[in-house]
Amino acid sequence: MILILLGPPGAGKGTQARLIERDYGVVQLSTGDMLRELAGQDSELGQEVRQVLEAGQLVSDDLIARMIADRIGREDCRNGFLLDGFPRTLVQAHLLDEMLDRKGLTLDAVIRLAVDEEVLVERITGRFTCAKCGEGYHDTFKVPRVPGVCDICGGTQFTRRSDDNEETVRNRFAAYREQTAPILPYYEEKGLLREVDALQDIDVVADEIRGVLGEPQAAAAAGA
Ligand code: AMP
What we know:
By secondary structure, the protein is α/β, with parallel strands linked by helices. Helices cover about 50% and strands about 15% of the residues. It has ten helices and eight strands. The strands form two sheets. It has a five-stranded parallel β-sheet with strand order 2-3-1-4-8, sandwiched between helices. Strands 6-5-7 form a three-stranded antiparallel β-sheet. Helix 1 (about 15-25) packs across helix 9 (about 200-215). The protein starts with a strand and ends with a helix. The structure holds adenosine monophosphate. Adenosine monophosphate binds near residues 58, 59 and 88.
């Protein structure tokens, strides 16, 4: 099964991607995570990427396309993959089509997490992540059961993304509106676009996504 998860920053792409990965056995490929890793490296490219991320702008289509092409060719993507944060421009959508064509693969669905932008600022600026296992939390909406201790792995170190501040978030929204939103009609015309109201509780959103994809076992039996 090959999926795209689309939506503005803070729509819950990362959270839902982790659930889909767990339930459907597909690998989550987050271009944001890949770039943050690159940005942490002490190299010229690392520094370049770091500046783009801090400004809330998009890195070049060419770099992203090379990263994805390399990643989807690996063994762990054989059962399928879920693209989180890619494609983000129409050019990237076309590049993805070419990549999939070359590999004889087809896209199963594009899930759009629909949300109201203003509500998202609160969501984004309050989020943090377990440094050990990557589980996501929020100051208001999802605090760990025991304060300071990860529910999943017991880790006690948490991180916040440096681009989760209000100014950068506003720029990231603008980039989404101007460059990413225009790809929605492209997938709509192909009959692949499915919309889910992502302002609902995490579990309800996950249920609706399951409604779109089919129950995990049935989806696997169908060869997805
Ligand atoms: P995300 O974690 O998906 O919100 O991505 C964080 C940042 O990484 C974005 O604000 C962009 O600067 C960059 N980024 C992630 N994915 C892409 C992409 N497909 N194309 C260009 N830039 C990207």
